[in-house]
Amino acid sequence: xxxxxxxxxxxxxxxxxPAFLGGIMQATGNKPPAMLPKRAEYMLKDLKRMAKxxxxxxxxxxxxxxxxxxxxxxxAMRFITAIDMTQPQYLEPLSREFWxxxxxxxxxxxQPENILAVAKxxxxxxxxxxxxxxxxxxxAVKNRLKETTAEAIKYGAFGMPAVVAHFNGEPHLFxxxxxxxxxxxxxxx
Length: 189
Hints:
With 189 residues, the chain is mainly α. It has helices at residues 2-6, 21-28, 37-54, 64-70, 74-86, 91-104, 112-121, 126-135, 139-154, 180-186; strands spanning 162-167, 170-175. α7 (112-121) crosses α8.
């Protein structure tokens, strides 16, 4: 959300790339920070501070960590991948709606009926949404998501959010939403 705000101020070409967090964590041997009690305690406070600072409607409590860890986002990421492959103009609004439904409205985005509701909220027709829902089990969509996940790992991603800035011919990885000032500094903004 914040990068979307900055894209015109910083004159950046912002491109969303769907990646599967579970695949990244498995490939890198990383563990969710909420699995560490003191880190989870700090993260809860930090997320609330960040939400207030950036004016992004994150609704989270200590009980949400189990919800977050127990909800698969694979179907949603495949759905987003399918839209990227067929109607990329919807990638940003669809990504935003999935984020809002999961983090702000605490909805289960793993269920097909909720995926369709998110798609409708993002402006997709019910016909297109149904077509995309059918595509999420196709080899083409699965392979594309595997490719973008592998690409994220190649750039050094070990969790999400991960931002890769290509500047002066070099990729620069930034992890976390609290590194935006460093990203700005690297690109001269």
